[in-house]
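[Automated response] Your request has been received and processed.

Submitted sequence:
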Amino acid sequence: MVGPPYNPAAVRAAHTLLRHAHDDWTANLHRLRPDDADDRQADLRLRLYGSAAAVLLWTRGIDDMCTDPDGHQPYVAARPAVAPRLSAARYAGNHAIHQLIPLSDLDSGGATFPMTFPRAFRPPTLRWATEIVLPPVDIDSTRKLRRVYLATWAGHAIGPTLDQLRAWFDEQLA
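Generated structure:
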């Protein structure tokens, strides 16, 4: 697959949009409560979904543009170290947008055990969808991305993976 031609100004703009989407994710995540039954919490989960999908899509766009044959050579040289994460991001982003499947499961948090004093509570955590909720795959290239996604992200907390993507792009595109 050949991506769009490398354009440093477009990459800087996309990187800014990725950072904004990540900031939105982080801000909204801190507002999430274990009981997501009310409408406000349901709306918040949709905002989190949208922010995560935006991070994934900007990740894909930046990756496509920077890996152009005339692309950002330091990025191309460093890319193999994070290639599995970028493939997982591509898979999750494709499914978030094209099939509108849930990206996540909510681990509702709660009390920690053994009990400690003062009492400690684990905040709710959104985790990447596991294989059981993913639709069947019939395209070989998608099958490969899915295998990487399952090995890299499925069942893991979403927050740290988005944090890692942002940190990597911040480092590479500084």
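Summary generated for your ticket: The mean pLDDT is 84. Residues 74 and 172 are 7 Å apart (CA to CA).
If you did not submit this request, please reply to this message.
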